[in-house]
Design brief:
Elements: E1 3-7, E2 10-12, E3 18-25, E4 34-39, E5 45-51, E6 58-60, E7 68-73, E8 78-83, E9 92-103, E10 107-113, E11 117-121
Parallel strand pairs: 2-11
Antiparallel strand pairs: 1-3, 3-8, 4-5, 4-9, 5-6, 7-8, 9-10, 9-11
Length: 123
């Protein structure tokens, strides 16, 4: 069965960096587009970023461009999200997700989700 396991979250000061990882199993990782999605406290799901199966095509929510970088290592079945210049408004649970339908700012619907990793940006 599909398993997605996120790690790397934690508490970081504003301006700091974190790298999230998502270990995938139960499917041919290198054949699928993957996504990061987040949910801030009391808010709905927000699509963050997407990377195609080969890793050469990426997309980001407009508000995050330039600060976040998505990448993948298909040999290790792992998805990454490098987050720099973190702001308090980046505080959220971050999910790795597969088989997603995304309309940025309007809709994010995925068939497979990890359990999420908490990122808290606070001084």
């Amino acid at each position: 069965q599909v398993q997605l396991v996120e790690s790397g979250g934690g508490l970081v000061q504003p301006g700091g960096s974190l790298r999230l990882s998502c270990a995938a199993s139960g499917f041919t990782f290198g054949s699928y587009t993957m996504n990061w999605v987040r949910q801030a406290p009391g808010k709905g799901l927000e699509w963050v970023s997407q990377i195609n199966s080969g890793g050469r095509s990426t997309a980001y929510a407009d508000s995050l461009k330039g600060r976040f970088t998505i990448s993948r290592d298909n040999a290790k079945n792992t998805l990454y999200l490098q987050m720099n210049s973190l702001k308090p408004e980046d505080t959220a649970v971050y999910y790795c997700a597969k088989d997603c339908t995304v309309v940025p700012g309007i809709l994010v619907r995925c068939n497979y989700w990890g359990q999420g990793t908490q990122v808290t940006v606070s001084s």
